[in-house]
């Protein structure tokens, strides 16, 4: 590994609620090698994975695409939607197809969602909007814009208080347009780590899988924590967690491959992306 000051296994953890099921029952202390979690916002985890100072981390899909050659993916772990995602939302005064050449304010917290919006606006709606970057403040964003993109907990909170704007769920638009689900985050591993420590990687992969399955068997602790930290009702959060997909099966892989293909076509990525999935000491190449 590069830029490492100790021998601990460093595992990134995204603060967002949509990753909670994979981490709620994940215990780094139970691993056979000393490990610790690095909890940060996605942009910092993405950067640290790209610079090589984390071993394993969920990363936003676009960040994986940017550095795909240095990563492999853990199997059956993602934050995806097979339709509505409820946390990648475009707020606008008119339907998005009517503002395809308008001005859109972009959250500065997610390249994956920003580029998903650009793909939809330019490929699905045939537009060419003007974009500008903003802090995730809906009033500020909409002051001089036709639409504003918010993601994650900011999008959820804004949707609860919104009475003025049309709200478009980008996961739903992607599904209607392509027929595939959309994967927003994947679990990336440094290729060098996978090659050097395959047994430990298998152990980590199984621990994440068990946390996911245990969380989904009983969502009550996650629901209560979300209500306490963010607000909202138990019914909302139970639906939110149940509505997301945390797998990375073949249809989800094909949907993500399509996203990367459009990103390359539009010049958002400078290279074609090849996904390699780790599976019990083996690599499986995702076919487009």
Distance between the termini: 30 Å
Please outline the major beta sheet.
5 strands, mixed
Distinct helical segment count:
12
- Show unreliable segments: none
Q: How large a portion of the residues is in β-strands, by DSSP E?
A: 15-25%
Q: Give the helix proportion (percent range).
A: 40-55%
Give the overall silhouette: globular
Strand order of the largest sheet: 7-6-8-5-9
State the total count of DSSP E strands.
Answer: 13
Q: What are the key terms here?
A:
5-stranded mixed beta sheet; 4-stranded antiparallel beta sheet; 288 residues; 12 helices; 42% helix; 24% strand; alpha/beta
Descriptive account of the structure:
The structure is a single chain. The chain has 288 residues and is of the alpha/beta class. The protein has twelve helices and 13 strands. It has a five-stranded mixed beta sheet. It has a four-stranded antiparallel beta sheet with strand order 3-10-4-11. Helix 4 (111-124) crosses helix 7 (170-178).
Protein topology:
Elements lengths: L8 E6 L5 H4 L11 E6 L1 H10 L4 E5 H6 L4 E11 L6 E5 L10 E5 L3 H14 L5 E5 L3 H5 L4 E5 H10 L4 E4 H9 L3 E9 H6 L1 H20 L2 H10 L4 H10 E2 L4 H16 L10 E3 L4 E3 L3
Parallel strand pairs: 1-2, 6-7, 6-8
Antiparallel strand pairs: 3-10, 4-10, 4-11, 5-8, 5-9, 12-13
């Amino acid at each position: 590994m590069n830029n490492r000051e100790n021998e601990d296994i460093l595992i990134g953890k995204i603060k967002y609620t949509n990753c909670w099921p994979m981490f709620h029952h994940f215990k780094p202390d139970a691993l056979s090698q000393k490990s610790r979690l690095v909890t940060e916002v996605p942009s910092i985890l993405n950067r640290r994975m790209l610079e090589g100072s984390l071993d394993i981390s969920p990363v936003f899909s676009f960040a994986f695409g940017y550095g795909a050659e240095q990563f492999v993916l853990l199997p059956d772990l993602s934050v995806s939607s097979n339709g509505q995602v409820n946390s990648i939302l475009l707020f606008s005064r008119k339907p998005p197809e009517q503002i395809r050449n308008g001005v859109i304010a972009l959250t500065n917290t997610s390249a994956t969602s920003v580029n998903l919006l650009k793909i939809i606006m330019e490929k699905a709606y045939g537009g060419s909007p003007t974009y500008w970057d903003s802090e995730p403040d809906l009033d500020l964003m909409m002051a001089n814009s036709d639409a504003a993109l918010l993601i994650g907990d900011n999008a959820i909170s804004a949707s609860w208080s919104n009475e003025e704007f049309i709200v478009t769920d980008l996961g739903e638009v992607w599904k209607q347009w392509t027929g595939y689900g959309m994967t927003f985050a994947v679990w990336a591993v440094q290729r060098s780590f996978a090659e050097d420590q395959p047994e430990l990687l298998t152990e980590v992969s199984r621990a994440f899988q068990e946390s996911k399955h245990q969380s989904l068997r009983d969502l009550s602790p996650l629901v209560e924590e979300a209500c306490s930290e963010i607000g909202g009702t138990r019914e909302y959060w139970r639906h939110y967690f149940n509505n997301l997909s945390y797998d990375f099966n073949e249809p989800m892989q094909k949907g993500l491959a399509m996203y990367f293909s459009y990103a390359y076509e539009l010049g958002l990525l400078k290279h074609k992306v090849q996904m390699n999935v780790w599976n019990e000491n083996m690599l499986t190449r995702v076919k487009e």
